[in-house]
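Tokens for chain A. Residues wanted.
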């Protein structure tokens, strides 16, 4: 059995108990250290927020020093669907435990994902019993069951948090079209979604994307 998740944390800048919990979900082949410093950039605007960036549950098959939420061998829709479903319980347990540890209600949670982490943030965040106050997805996509009817997906959705999707227009790993497919898919589910396309940016996060992400969280915290 894979051990419970853990990773680097940043305590509230204002001191005292946290009022919000922002959880970063890293991409394939990275680990929790890859995104945690974004929390420091956002701290001035969110002084009462705690930030945490758990390491994904599995060693990465293609990057031995990194971690993966699930394997990517053929990058097929069915593989991604099996992957998010299998990894979701690990993330759910971590989120619930971290909220409980900080004595925070589920509504104090925000999820911020990058690439494979965005797939996890959208999958889990839309199925929480209580909606997170925000989800931000960088350079990712909305994973759905390729064999299920749209009505089945709609029946699974239990929360509709505000979502911001950000993608580089020069991303050659996950094409920018994934942003528009995800935005349209979320809209059909009745999920409020905003999006931003970062000019000249590949598979990564630029300064404008960071700024917009921080402002989106601050407006909803």
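Reply:
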């Amino acid at each position: 059995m894979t051990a419970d998740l853990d990773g680097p944390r940043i305590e509230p800048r204002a001191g005292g108990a946290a009022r919000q919990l922002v959880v970063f979900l890293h991409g394939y082949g990275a680990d929790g250290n890859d995104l945690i410093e974004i929390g420091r950039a956002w701290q001035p605007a969110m002084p009462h927020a705690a930030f945490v960036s758990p390491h994904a549950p599995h060693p990465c098959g293609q990057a031995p020093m990194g971690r993966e939420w699930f394997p990517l061998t053929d990058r097929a829709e069915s593989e991604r669907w099996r992957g998010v479903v299998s990894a979701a319980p690990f993330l759910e347990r971590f989120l619930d435990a971290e909220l409980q540890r900080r004595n925070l209600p589920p509504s104090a949670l925000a999820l911020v994902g990058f690439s494979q982490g965005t797939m996890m943030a959208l999958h889990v965040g839309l199925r929480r019993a209580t909606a997170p106050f925000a989800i931000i997805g960088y350079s990712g996509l909305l994973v759905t069951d390729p064999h299920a009817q749209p009505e089945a997906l709609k029946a699974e959705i239990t929360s509709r948090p505000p979502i911001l999707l950000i993608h580089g227009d020069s991303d050659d790993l996950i094409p920018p079209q994934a942003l528009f497919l995800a935005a349209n898919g979320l809209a059909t589910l009745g999920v409020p979604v905003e999006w931003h396309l970062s000019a000249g940016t590949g598979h990564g996060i630029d300064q404008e994307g960071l700024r917009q992400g921080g402002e989106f969280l601050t407006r909803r915290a």
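The CA atoms of residues 47 and 171 lie 33 Å apart. The domain at 9-220 is CATH 3.40.50.1820 (Rossmann fold).
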